[in-house]
């Protein structure tokens, strides 16, 4: 699977002491936000992992290490593919590096671009594209519903493209 986080812009919710919660600050949006961690299968057009929402202040790597997917990958002795923001977890994730052969570089690049295509399917929905103005628990339900709609779309006529090209063969 490929692993990546997706940041969503949300309304600012006041903390207990302050008008703003600094841990919800999204560096991508320069406003409050929430993050979900997503895993997309490299074999088929399928969302295989969804976890969140998390406060946007934490990095994708920190969420990966502390929120469950790392332990699951270790338990099943599998590795995911992730971008450079996930370095430091070589037993669980394979990230782009200068030692990869040309075909491995192409495979990782196509897999990560394919994951971004899935993220773009999610970002089409107004609830994600614009600032989410409702309660935090409502955001989680809304995000999950959008992922279900995207999965339905992939199963019924709009699959993600195949990342295997040329001489690449997939072994089970």
Description of the structure:
By secondary structure, this protein is α/β, with parallel strands linked by helices. It has five helices and six strands. Strands 1, 2, 3, 4, 5 and 6 form a six-stranded mixed sheet that branches. A hairpin with a 6-residue loop joins strand 3 (31-40) and strand 4 (47-55). The chain is globular, with a radius of gyration of 17 Å. The two termini are 13 Å apart.
Set down the secondary structure blueprint.
Blueprint: E1 2-9, E2 25-26, E3 31-40, E4 47-55, H1 60-66, H2 69-76, E5 80-82, E6 93-94, H3 102-123, H4 126-129, H5 136-155
Parallel strand pairs: 1-5, 5-6
Antiparallel strand pairs: 1-3, 2-3, 3-4
Task: Provide a quick synopsis of the model.
The chain contains five helices and six strands, in the order ββββααββααα.
Instruction: Examine the coordinates and then state which fold CATH places here, giving the name of the CATH topology.
Output: Nucleotidyltransferase, domain 5
- Unreliable stretches, pLDDT < 50, 5 or more residues? none
The helix content, as a percent range, equals 25-40%
Succession of helices and strands:
EEEEHHEEHHH
Instruction: Calculate the mean pLDDT score and round it.
Output: 80
Sheet with most strands: 6 strands, mixed
Distance between the termini: 13 Å
Number of strands: 6
Radius of gyration, Cα only, in angstroms?
A: 17 Å
Provide the structure class. Answer: alpha/beta
C-alpha geometry:
globular
CATH class: Alpha Beta
- The assigned CATH architecture is 2-Layer Sandwich
Strand content: 15-25%
Helix run count: 5
Number of domains: 1
């Amino acid at each position: 699977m490929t692993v990546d986080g997706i940041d969503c812009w949300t309304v600012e919710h006041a903390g207990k002491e302050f008008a703003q919660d600094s841990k919800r600050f999204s560096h991508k949006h320069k406003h409050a936000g929430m993050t979900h961690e997503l895993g997309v299968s490299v074999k088929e057009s399928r969302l295989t992992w969804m976890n969140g929402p998390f406060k946007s202040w934490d990095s994708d790597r920190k969420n990966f290490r502390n929120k469950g997917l790392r332990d699951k990958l270790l338990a099943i002795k599998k590795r995911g593919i992730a971008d450079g923001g996930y370095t430091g977890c070589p037993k669980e994730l394979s990230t782009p590096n200068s030692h990869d052969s040309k075909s491995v570089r192409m495979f990782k690049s196509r897999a990560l671009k394919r994951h971004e295509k899935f993220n773009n399917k999610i970002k089409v929905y107004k609830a994600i594209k614009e600032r989410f103005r409702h309660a935090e628990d409502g955001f989680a339900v809304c995000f999950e519903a959008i992922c279900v709609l995207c999965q339905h779309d992939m199963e019924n006529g709009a699959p993600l493209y195949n990342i295997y090209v040329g001489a690449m063969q997939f072994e089970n």
